[in-house]
Amino acid sequence: MVDSLKKPGFEELRPGIKAPAKETILTPRFYTTDFDEMERMDISLNEDELRAILEEFRADYNRHHFVRDAEFEQSWDHIDGETRRLFIEFLERSCTAEFSGFLLYKELGRRLKNKRPLLAECFNLMSRDEARHAGFLNKAMSDFNLQLDLGFLTKSRKYTFFKPKFIFYATYLSEKIGYWRYITIFRHLESHPENRIYPIFRFFENWCQDENRHGDFFDAILRAQPQFLNDWKAKLWCRFFLLSVFATMYLNDVQRKDFYASLGLDAREYDRYVIEKTNETSAKVFPVILDVQNPKFYEHLEVCVKNNERLTAIANSSAPKPIQFLQKLPYYLSNGLTLLRLYLMKPIDLTATAGSVR
User: Which 8-state DSSP code applies to residue 23?
Assistant: First the structure.
């Protein structure tokens, strides 16, 4: 087996350690926040629910779940070529996203320990879950002769600062969309086991329940802070984060449609289902959701898909960098205007007939 088949086209920091993917607007981010503001946060409005969620975390239903079994103990060289490259990318992106959650939750648990012990324990237990997920994914990468140096990733990645309310919007959506992504893949492969190219997918049913419980925690936090949900600014920010999460997922997944095809999934149909279910779930807490049933929603996203294809082609051309930038500029502008059109589409206002906090 030639090395190019085992490690297709990936730069390595050292033998067997993959260099982190280049950071772009579509790659998973690492976050930090205003810890002092978090310490001052009053959760008394919804403390009983938060305590109930803490008991769920303490129960640790998946403590024996992430154990590799005999099915992993084989060569995976038959997964080769483009499928291998895309699968390694999938594992890396997933591992990086889970590790990002671990770092944020662990730091929140440490910082809140003295002033907000209930929240601190919740964050520490969520960081436990995310560490398991990241470790399981990184071990899966080793089956393909590569791993991530998570310590290097901690030091080398740029951290994006978000105020607490933005952390809550973003992490709530990240956890809930993670649930729908995992459970949709699991159910599909349960019905079509011939497409289960690697055993990690058997673990997705229990795994996604961690994501769901984490999302419920952030749901409860948001409802403990009605000022994050009740005014016109909250509606604008909820729309912004919904669109950001949905557009990022759609553009990433369509770009990697061949990976989903290897699982027997159509990337566009898969994403539409996940977007619609996450949008419906968000209606339980957000004051507005997006009108994703409007055909123009996906028409606009497809404009961005085409623009990104052209941007990739330009980046892969032999033109000098200054020329490439000028060639890319119209497509950057088109993406910006298209995303603005998506943002300005009339949303579904959930406060028109009901209270703003449900």
Answer: P
Tokens representing residue 104 in the block: 């944020």
SS3 265: coil
Q: What are phi and psi of 349, to 5 degrees?
A: -85, 115
Whether 185 and 250 have beta carbons less than 8 Å apart is answered as no
- Is the pTM for the entire model greater than 0.85? yes
> Cβ(133)–Cβ(151) under 8 Å?
no
Positions of the chain with pLDDT lower than 50, given as ranges: 1-5, 355-358
Q: What is the CA radius of gyration of the chain?
A: 21
| β-strands 30-32, 159-161 pairing | parallel
β-bridge pairing 348-349 and 288-289: antiparallel
User: In this predicted model, what pLDDT tens digit does every residue of 26-52 receive, in sequence order?
Assistant: 788 899 999 999 999 999 999 999 999
Nearest to 182 by CA among 113, 83, 249, 257: 249
Q: Which amino acid is at 127?
A: S
Amino acid at 117: P
Crossing angle of helices 117-142 and 204-224, in 10° steps, is: 150
User: Token pair 């993670």 is at which residue?
Assistant: 178
Q: Is the dihedral of CA 306, 310, 316, 322 positive or negative?
A: negative
Cα–Cα distance, 201 to 211 (Å, whole number): 15
- pLDDT value for 353: 58
Residue 278: φ, ψ to 5° = -65, -40
Contacts 24+ apart (CB under 8 A), 227-233: 228/165, 228/168, 228/169, 229/285, 229/286, 229/287, 229/356, 229/357, 230/287, 230/356, 230/357
Secondary-structure breakdown of the chain: helix, strand, coil percentages, each rounded to the nearest 5? 70, 5, 30
Q: How far apart are the first and last CA of the chain?
A: 58
Q: Which two tokens stand for residue 129?
A: 């879950």
**DSSP type of residue 33:** -
> How far apart, in whole angstroms, are the C-alpha atoms of residue 6 and residue 350?
51
Q: What is d(CA 288, CA 189) in angstroms, rounded to the nearest whole number?
A: 33
Integer Cα distance of 132 and 153 in angstroms: 17
Contact (CB, 8 A) for 291 and 178: no
